[in-house]
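Weekly structure sync, notes
Attendees: PL (lead), two postdocs, one rotation student
Agenda item 3: pending single-chain targets
PL asked that the sequence for the first pending target be pasted directly into the notes so everyone works from the same version. It is reproduced below exactly as submitted, 339 residues in total.
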Amino acid sequence: MESIDLLVLRTARDWLAAGDRVLLVTVARTWGSSPRPVGSMMALRNDGRVVGSVSGGCIEDDLIHHYTTAYGAAGLPERLPDVVRYGVSADEAHRFGLPCGGTLELVLEFIPALESLDPLLASLDAGQLVRRELDLHTGQVTLHNTAAPDQFAFDGQHMSNTLGPGYRMLLIGAGALAEYVAVMAQFNGFQVSICDPRPQYLKTWSVPGVVRIQQMPDDVVRAFAPDVRTCIIALSHDPKLDDLALLEALQGPAFYIGAIGSRRNSQNRRDRLIEHFGQTQESLERLHGPIGIYIGSKTPPEIAVSVMAEVLAAKNAVALPSEFSISQAKKIREVQRCA
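Predicted structure, written out during the meeting:
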């Protein structure tokens, strides 16, 4: 399952190529609470069909009503980009289903040029990170390859949005837990690969859309070339597979690196990496383990929910309170039982 940004852009490109009129909408600025972050996109076809979202649904309905033939309007106009604002007053916020005090500003691109979407999608499909810049004065779009994602920017006349290949997840160990994590990751737009040199494990893998790799994990991590949109999770429970792969992962900029295991096993792993591989407490600070947030999970699907929650928090740069960590939460429960 590809990321929502790619889905919106690809669908808009296909609609335009088929001769349809398309409105490309981007969340440019927000004040207070907002259902969707800046940079979120949706595409609206002239018959009222929508892909992507900029709110919980009410604003999409209003855009359909004003800019398509779905409710008897004349159809999408062909004009320069425009800016609209929703939720300025309390009445409007209530009408459009925005949270209390929420306001958002949208950039509307009427019938975006097909010749700018084709090269953009070609670069994204090739794994490039691309900064898309829009000049609202002229409607001109320029594309720039970039090495690192820039913050979304909008000054009222110029909009800059960094788009890139979907977030990637590399799982090590093709067990039952990995299958549940893979499914949840795909629903969240991750491109998932599973690595396991043991053929008996890969043969039983049942999740479609996942790249299967039967090689030693440390070699796979090296070839995977992790970047800031990559997470690597060791789930094999086998130190011969997990340890070397984690060492390779820690040398790169992956936003999340973790390994399954109890508190004791996680500490044993850290001790091994320090004693035998020259790591330090500081160099292992990025290594998550035990992985996940504490929700009392016992079964593989429950553990997968816990792990995916921690991955998404890291992806979204959310610092979780210490009591959310499995180690800390279990220590607190042990103290409470002894009290």
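Discussion points:
- Residues 4-118 form one domain.
- The chain has a mean pLDDT of 88.
Action: rotation student to compare against the earlier draft before next sync.
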